[in-house]
Specification:
With 451 residues, the chain is of the alpha/beta class. The protein has 3 domains: 83 residues, SRP54, nucleotide-binding domain (Four Helix Bundle (Hemerythrin (Met), subunit A), Up-down Bundle); 196 residues, 3-Layer(aba) Sandwich (Rossmann fold), CATH 3.40.50; 135 residues, 434 Repressor (Amino-terminal Domain). Helices cover 57% and strands 9% of the residues. Strands 3-2-4-1-5-6-7-8 form an 8-stranded mixed sheet, with helices on both faces. Helix 9 runs parallel beside helix 10 and helix 18 crosses helix 19.
């Protein structure tokens, strides 16, 4: 996500921070490098000019060169300006009627149909009853895809077989929603390979026929500067309420997010990461700016953990850890909860580690690789062995290693690491119990389980 831009900006900031003073000359050098970084990330030229001009004006107003910590002041200015460019504040969906209607727009290949299902999952988790409505009558695969996604995720679905009149389909979907208590209808409209008059006329007809709460343009974040022209075209004809950005985890540039917000003055409301059907996430400009500058996004990580982690199961695992009853099966449960948070790389990007992207990628790759190997080793054990690590003798270890296609040394190394972790957790448990008589507080600096 914004990998190229993030890496370049972090390098510029690091270089600036290493200087004892910030002069007019090296500030100009920093701004020149920031300009190149933005252009290299597919940010449009007009946006780059505005961005640099704003930072320069604010830097002079804040007397950056004369400040006691000029590099930190410059970092704050860049962070604030990034936040402003990304929309300044999080823009929630306005679903204030019953039922509410969300109309998804976009070109073919933008991820519109998948985003419809992901949006439905998000709304379902928020206590609403969404209805997916298939209005792409030109591409049969689109209706089938939407129905399959609805069935797989237990979401209500509506379409009319052999009907080409999209207004009629939409009208009937409202009747269906009233009968089935659906509170939000999601219109999955037709896309084209490019914007044409027929497509726009149909979308405008739907728009004028219904009270649409949200008109959201789904943009593939990897398409670059052409996103601005697409966004402006849709906004001119339909007056958009905002954007959904897809494929953010696969994007190495991400400049289109900065460009479309600045050009249309409409916010990015939701983002999608990964091909798996997971709920869309709210877009927070300030948090994204922090991530771009390598400052992490702990708040989003905690929110994701609260959604993904089974609290009761987590408490049970903590209790087992502290009592030294932690088994290989429990290790697999923790691994499953980590996977629910997303990829290793995605998790690391939310932590303020202060390391380069190359190092982050290496850690992510090695971490994913190691966890997969651990999983294979555990799956080669019997149920009894997984639940009781203490029974592993030499003959059992030999069989497990052979079954996993691993060496005995690799298995022994894993078991040794596992036992070390168990001892550490038991030690923390003993310390936690001993502190109960002193108010139950752990000494400063001791880790606290987030369960």
């Amino acid at each position: 996500m914004f990998d190229s831009l993030s890496q370049r900006l972090q390098e510029i900031i690091k270089k600036t921070a290493s200087q004892s003073t910030l002069t007019e000359e090296n500030m100009q050098d920093a701004l020149r490098e920031i300009r190149r970084a933005l252009l290299g990330a597919d940010v449009s030229l007009n946006v780059v000019k505005s961005f640099i001009s704003s930072i320069k004006d604010k830097a002079e107003g804040a007397q950056v060169v004369k400040s006691t910590n000029p590099s930190q002041t410059l970092i704050k200015l860049v962070n604030d300006e990034l936040t402003n460019l990304l929309g300044e504040k999080q823009a929630p969906l306005k679903l204030d009627t019953n039922p509410s209607i969300v109309m998804l727009l976009g070109l073919q290949g933008s991820g519109k149909t998948t985003s419809a299902a992901k949006l439905a999952l998000k709304l379902k988790k928020e206590g609403k009853t969404p209805l997916l409505v298939a209005l792409d009558v030109y591409r049969p695969a689109a209706i089938l895809q939407l129905k399959t996604l609805a069935d797989d995720n237990k979401i209500d679905f509506f379409s009319l077989d052999n009907e080409k009149n999209v207004v009629k389909i939409a009208q009937e979907s409202l009747k269906y929603a009233a009968e089935h208590n659906n509170t939000v209808l999601i219109f999955d409209t037709a896309g084209r390979l490019e914007i044409d008059s027929d497509m726009m006329a149909e979308l405008m007809l739907i728009n004028h026929s219904f009270n649409i709460n949200e008109k959201l343009l789904v943009i593939d974040s990897m398409i670059g500067q052409s996103a601005v022209e697409i966004a402006l075209n849709f906004d001119e004809q339909l007056v958009l309420d905002g954007f959904i950005l897809t494929k953010l985890d696969g994007d190495t540039k991400g400049g289109c997010a900065l460009s479309i917000v600045h050009s249309t003055h409409k916010p990015v409301k939701l983002i999608a990461e990964g091909e798996n059907i997971r709920p869309l996430q709210d877009f927070h400009p300030d948090r994204m700016a922090n991530r771009i500058l390598g400052m992490g996004d702990i708040v989003s990580l905690v929110e994701r953990a609260q959604e993904a982690v089974n609290i009761e199961e987590a408490r049970e695992l903590e209790s087992k850890m502290l009592k030294n009853e932690f088994s290989f099966n429990d290790f697999l449960k923790i691994q499953k909860q980590i996977k629910a948070l997303g990829s290793f790389g995605g998790i690391l990007s939310m932590l303020p580690l202060g390391i380069s992207k190359d190092d982050t990628d290496k850690i992510s790759h090695e971490g994913e690789k190691q966890l997969k190997r651990f999983e294979v080793l555990i799956q080669s054990m019997t149920l009894e062995e997984r639940n009781n690590p203490n029974i592993l003798n030499s003959s059992r270890k030999k069989r497990i290693a052979q079954g996993a296609g691993a060496s005995l040394n690799e298995l022994n190394a894993f078991i040794s690491q596992f036992e070390t972790m168990r001892k550490m957790m038991k030690g923390l448990g003993n310390l936690k119990n001993s502190m109960k008589g002193k108010g139950g507080k752990m000494p400063f600096g001791m880790p606290k389980f987030p369960f």
